[in-house]
Amino acid sequence: MAVCIAVIAKENYPLYIRCSANVEDELKFHFTVHTSLDVVEEKISSTGKTSTARAPDMREFYLGQLYPSEDYRIYGYVTNTKVKFVMVVEASNTQIRDNDVRSMFRRLHNAYTSVVCNPFYILGSNISSKAFEKVVAGMIVDEQKKELFT
Amino acid sequence: MSKHLKLPEELCCNPTPFIVLTGLDNVYNAVHKSIWDAFCNNRRNDRLQIQFSCLPGDHAYPRSKTKRTSYDWYIPKGLLKSSWMKKHLSLLPSVVVVFFELDWDDPAWKERHLACASRVQVVRSSLQGRTTKVAVVLIQKSTPLPPGEDMVAAERAAALCSACELSAKSLFILPHTDQLLGYIIRLENAFYELSQVYYRTEARRVKAHKEFLNKTTHQLLFPRHQFKIGFFNEMIQDPTSALKHYRHAYTHVHELRTYESNNLEIKLVGGFVNYKICKLCFLKLNAPLDAITQFRQHVEQFKSMCGSQDLLFEHSAWLSHQYQVFADLFSEAISKGLSAIQTQHPGFYYNQAAYYAKIRKQCAQKLKASLQDQTYPSEDPLKVEVLEFYGQRPWRQGQQRIDPADHSKEKDGIMALQLEETKQDHSLQIISLLGSAISIFKNYHCHRLKRQLTVQMGEEYYHAGDYMKVVALLTRATADYRTGRCWLILSKILWMLLHCSYLTADLESFLIHSTQLLSRHLSIPHDDKITVQHSLMNLLMRQIPLPILLPASFDHVPEHHTSAYNDAEEKWKTLLSSPKSFPVYSLQVTDAIPFVECKFQFSKPQFTMEEVIALHVFTRVTCPAPCKISKLLVLLNNGTELSVEENAEKDAKKSDLKQYTPFEIKEHVLKFLCSPHEKQNVLEVRQLSVLLGSSNGLSIDLIWSDQFVDAATDPKPSSPFSMAQLGGEKCWDDISNITSTEIVECPSRLKVNILHKTPAFVGEAYAIDIKINSSESNDFTAENVTAVLSLKQNENSETEAHLSEKCSDLHTSKAKSLQLALGNMETNQTIERTVYVQTTQASVLHFSLHVSYQMQKPSELPKTGVLTCTSSESIDFAVEVLTPFNFTAHVTSLNLDSVSTVNQNQPFIVLVNVSSENFSPIQINSFSLHLNENDGFKTAGEQSPALDGKVLQQRECAVGAFTVLCDKSHDPSTSFLIGSCTFEWSRFESENPAQKVTLQRKLPSILVKSSPVSITAAVPAFGHLRQKLTITYSLKSHISEPQTIEISCEGSDAFMFSGTKNSTGFLAPGEAHNYSYNFFPLAIGYQELPRFMVSCTKHAEDEKAAQKVDQYPQNRFIFVKP
């Protein structure tokens, strides 16, 4: 499924970033995640401008596809506390549809909420929760498992 | 970019109709020159898009091939001929115009018109077989007459047309007058129409070929013909139909069978057609989305057609070029008003172009390795004068076969191409593409993408061997990744930077980047980290650093890199051996992530002046190997500098700074005293710096200020659950900076008591006793004890209060605060002082007492001598001020009825009521009345000292009655003050005679009526029912004139009476009359007596001025008992 999943703090630094195990050049995804923030920021500010009348929590969290790339599709999601999730999917992976991405983000959001609810977690520090790790691993490794079973 | 992959110029230009003008002699004939200029020069945008050319009349145009009638045996050799577009754009005209000077009334008409006809004939013959239009323009000196009037002209024009075999529509007259440009523009339009007809016929002619083609042998001709039709349509400036035909051509290209030998040809022509489609969509039809979709499909379809494995680089180069060309088109459209968005703009395409250029470079590098000992084929297979078809190999032109005919030739050709490729400067191309992308990303709020490209650009410069540029570019990029905390990226950049700083022997850059690269946040392999640290330590000792190698992913080491290492070593040697001293390089830690971390805490949030202030400084290093710190310096906000220095030579024990093992937390406690004159009571750390390196070698100064954290740490407080609390070891993250402490005075050891008997009374000298007792230990003398009592008042408060140390001074003192110098106090000594306060209004007075003193104490730190401490204590207290008693005064008649008006000369009573509400008893010592004698008030009869000596307890009251009369006549409408009274009072049983307070109060005002006659009546207090009651009214005149009086007594239901009911009398001055009445009460209770009324009339000289005054006796009611 996803090749790379990242959680970005409100202040735009990564809290968590994980790439699929069979990825050679991890650095490239760090760059991709970092650059996708440009678009995320722009999207947040533009929705902020147009929908001032709407309550902020009514905002759509899912940002959709961020920017065009030859090999990857990059999706974004922003929580109400301005924590960003970025997911990179291979462009060749046509099985995964917009709705799947949406539900994956929702699961990720739930997992993140549980992380934050942990009283020992310091807000703004790197995420090192096993439960969260498990959720992310489920989204990333899916593909390999499928291959194993078939 | 290889030349053969580039789009040809004729494809990129805007096709315009080509028209040739002949018969113009621009060199010798001024008239011709001006005509030519009008056609060609200063063509503005609103004029038609036409390409003019001036050629001699006998110019040889490209020969027409014999038109074939059937395509049956024809086998096409290629897709698109490279000469075709050029031919139609600039060689083969659509219209040839013959200019000829001939007037209708030319004397030699006959000869001249035949000469003209022969000129036309020459042109015709050189256009043999072409459908090019021919037109004739006669240049005439005179303005022509309106058509139909000049019979000669019409006749001769017809003759000329027939001689030249021209239609009448192709003959034009150009009178050479001053409105030349107007005529020219009209001519131009006519030519344009002719050329349109020409191109339309051409297009139709090409279309007609279709019928002869079959799909097997003539597959190449389908795209060719469609392309041609599209091109002609572009000539006519009909973009819509041009687009349609180009699209057809594009699909035909895709239908072609591809194999290795024609791969390039198909790709190239496909690229051409794609370019045309995108260009039309972007620039002519304003359909940018169509262009983008087309391009995306184009890339999608051709991306996989990589062709021969030996020529992979060519495919990448072609793809890169496609992207670049598309980005150029996109940019052009934007400059013409198209608006792009953040996620769809030319920057992405430039970036992609750069990406493919990089792939191309990688291919080329692989080739380079394999081609090292190959030589260029002796017979250049690439050498060819002109390629007949686009995209064909020079060594096998015009062949359409799946397998190459000559294998050795093919091999040589590929080898030649490969060798050519290795000579290319790829980095430069990539850099320029990245440059274009960066400049576009900048405009679309993509600063992170821009940064990424900057990093890529830096890498490219690295490959190109320009290390200075790498340092400059990447240094700029570090800040973004540092604030973004992308450690992986940052590690890579810093590593590269360090590597390049080493190669360029850039000392400052090397120091700064190595300091950061050693930080725990950055991940590079442990061994490399150790190398970096050794290099840094070497450098700080002024020795040559170890070479910094890049990670294995950068395995490619161009040949000039090896020499660069040697150069670098030389450079370092010369730099470090030069005798000059280097400055201390300072690094602001807020902009860096150094491997040294510092935190500090004041041990308490508050220190008294006598205490020793302790500042704990925690440091640790996160580099892999132990290291040294030479100096630690703290700068406070009062300018004090505290330092811990390495003094290894002098004192071995003090060298705790010297060695730091990684991740060990070292704590230094800096102890110092605050200077006694320090008025500032908050002590802050301004700056903290750590000096690495030695004074004789090189040194770097890490400076913490502002937030006191490095770029990797949040200034926020850390977790509420600290490891230390949980019983673990002290954890670095749990230490938080405490940057300030408060300096306070020593605690006061004076006991201050304030004694006073609240409440105070208005006007009283109220005594406040202040009692100070020193309980300072150890027999320290409290020096210069000063007490300041001050009154706290609101600004708008009207209460006046004065303070004084002496009771008798209170009237003169205006002091709001008092300073009492109490001198020195020994231990257990007590000082008492009394202060008096007086106020004029009931209120609450707030006081504050501030007692301060100094002490000399020996300090706790050795070598610092005696310490002067100051201490102080403040007490606030409030005093309630009340009025001592309530005072009221009333005026009553002699019967104690309340009145507001009194008659002149008639006595009345002033009642003075004094009541106390307070629990402390008050004694009225004396009371005196001061009547307003000026207005005629005086006492009537004797006065008793009714109030003197009275003591009022709480809720008691004392009343004094005073009989007063007024003997002056006044205006009855104004009231007059009766006078005032004076009390002298004191607190009961007060010993202090000075505390007697005199108080003056006003008596009420009253209206005084003047009366000429006074009526007095002796009315008994009561009467009995049906018992006679005698009342005598006595009248007395008070004026000096005689007066007439009328007496009347009105009957009443309650009384029967006898006496004068109605009479008139005369009253001389000073005379008195008595009238007696017997009243017989008929009803009980309060009854009004029959109304007795006197009206007096003054006898003046003037009758009219006589005043009539009605008067009644005072007592008009009587109580009747049964």
Automatic annotation (TrEMBL), chain A:
One of its GO terms (biological process) is endoplasmic reticulum to Golgi vesicle-mediated transport. GO terms for cellular component: cytoplasm; nucleus; perinuclear region of cytoplasm; TRAPP complex. The keyword Transport applies. Keywords: ER-Golgi transport, Transport. Pfam families: Sedlin_N (PF04628). Its main location: cytoplasm. InterPro entries: Longin-like_dom_sf, Sedlin, TRAPPC2L. It is found in: Cytoplasm, Perinuclear region. Belongs to the TRAPP small subunits family. Sedlin subfamily. This is Trafficking protein particle complex subunit 2-like protein. It comes from Ciona intestinalis (Transparent sea squirt). The gene is LOC100182304.
Automatic annotation (TrEMBL), chain B:
GO terms for cellular component: Golgi apparatus. GO terms for biological process: vesicle-mediated transport. It comes from the Eukaryota. Its main location: Golgi. The keyword Transport applies. InterPro entries: TPC11, TRAPPC11_C. It is found in: Golgi apparatus, cis-Golgi network. Residues 1047-1092 form the Trafficking protein particle complex subunit 11 C-terminal domain. The keyword Oxidoreductase does not apply. Keywords: ER-Golgi transport, Golgi apparatus, Transport. Involved in endoplasmic reticulum to Golgi apparatus trafficking at a very early stage. PANTHER family: FOIE GRAS (PTHR14374), TRAFFICKING PROTEIN PARTICLE COMPLEX SUBUNIT 11 (PTHR14374:SF0). Belongs to the TRAPPC11 family. This is Trafficking protein particle complex subunit 11. It comes from Ciona intestinalis (Transparent sea squirt).
